[in-house]
Amino acid sequence: MDLDSIRQEVRQAITGLMEIAELKPGQIVVLGCSTSEVLGKRIGSAGNVQIAEVILDEVMPVVKSHGVFLAVQCCEHLNRALVVEQEAADKYDLELVTVYPVPTAGGATSGTAMHKFHRPVVVESIRAYAGIDIGNTLIGMHIRPVAVPVRLPIKMIGQANLVLCRTRPRLVGGRRAIYALDKIEQKYPKSVDAQVPDCTK
Fold first, then answer.
1. Please, which residues have CB within 8 angstroms of residue 201's CB and are 6 or more apart in sequence?
2. Which of 117, 106, 116, 88 has the alpha carbon at shortest distance from 33?
3. What are 168-182's pLDDT values in tens digits?
């Protein structure tokens, strides 16, 4: 187990995600992490607090520097509930649940988050604006639509698969809809004589 390599990989992943996702202060990024998978073991079979600490020590400062909330997903034994700061729960009126994640029920990462967060609480679900999934922990149930893959040169953390995503608002309309301001200005240039198009035709 090379903790320095894991540390560098996590730093590269979270830094790259935050640069591409361009989250606004107060938004939420969700972290799902199987430390067992990082070790090359089956998910849920070999949780490791030391690895969890290394991962959170890299993720938390980067997220905080962007003014963004971090949510750490628990394992399926806790229905993938999440550890968040009380401030995030208050801001988004999140549904609290009563449980204390531990490595054998919740996972090493969520259990470690309970110790590292300032005022941790556990909530049932969230709608995150971006996500980092280390080890195929299935964070999709907590991602806002529409999820967009974020592809970085790094593909693994230790021996665990790495999947990153950001989100965007849904596109509504049809073939006549325009989604970019520059396209509007090209099609309908600003002028005194500009006419509003008849959308009923």
1. none
2. 106
3. 999 898 888 888 888
Helices (H) and strands (E) in the chain, counts: 6, 8
Which neighbouring-strand residues pair with 30?
71, 131
Phi, psi of 182 (to 5 degrees): -65, -30
Task: List C-alpha distances in Å: 79 to 21, 74, 124.
Answer: 27, 7, 8
Q: What is the CATH topology of the domain spanning 3-167?
A: Rossmann fold (3.40.50)
Q: Is 142 within 8 Å of 73 (Cβ atoms)? A: yes
Q: Does residue 197 carry a pLDDT above 60?
A: no
Domains of the chain: which residue ranges?
A: 3-167
Q: Does the predicted model carry a pTM greater than 0.85?
A: yes
CA 50, CA 70: separation in Å to the nearest integer?
A: 19
Task: Give 44-71 pLDDT, tens digit per residue.
Answer: 999 999 999 999 999 999 999 999 999 9
